[in-house]
Amino acid sequence: MRKILEICNDIKPATDAEIIEAEKQLKVKLPDSYIRLVKEQNGGRSIHNAFPTKVATSWEEDHIQIDEFHGIGGEGMSILDSGYLIQEWELPEDIVLISGDGHSWVALDYRKRKENPSVIYLDSEMEQTIELADSFDEFLQGLYTAEYKEEEESFEIWTDEEVVAGFISDDDHSFILTLNYIYEHPNPLNYKMLVEEHLYHSLHHQDDERQEISALYITHFHQKNILSPEFLVKAKKVFEEKESLKVYLELLK
């Protein structure tokens, strides 16, 4: 089998006992090629970052991006989280999520057969479902590396007043634009205190959608090492207390 995962010595191979227990919990027969994959390394980042599609998606006109594969248990996202995530994101039953971490997912589709499932792509925001491959073997063979050219653009600087206005706006679009501005800023640490103050405040917003947007961006800023350990402790506590935000706990590990 071609190499799929970047080597990570911290991620151990899945054991036969873990695989058997996973199949028992999920009530499915996992594809042999997936089992071989997690026996080499139990999930992790994908060497190949793309899979072709015949229709446009929120990623690109002709492909989706594949960042990593979920293993069985352990740290990070796991296929054992599928049941909870399906309920949280209102996804179809009888699928197993093998990649994705938010609004878009790649899944094994067991709706038509209980063995040798096809592989599908789901985008909950666009209400889009695409069949990618008839089997996991075919899916692995179709993975490839897409090269992305970085466009040189001048970065438009906002005033502090504009940033604060975006944070306190009741319009979700303005709120997201502000978060994206800071995320893409050459020196995002300049806004660390503002980010922590307003994201924590928004975790307690009366609107559930604003809470989820805030939780998602906390995970994004965490990946860029912008947030302080003290803030992350407070955020995790809120995630644990709010049922709708528990899914984001895995993304902070």
UniProtKB/TrEMBL annotation:
Gene3D superfamilies linked to this entry: SMI1/KNR4-like
Domain Knr4/Smi1-like: 13-142
Domain of life: Bacteria
Name used for this protein in its record: Knr4/Smi1-like domain-containing protein
Source species: Cytobacillus purgationiresistens
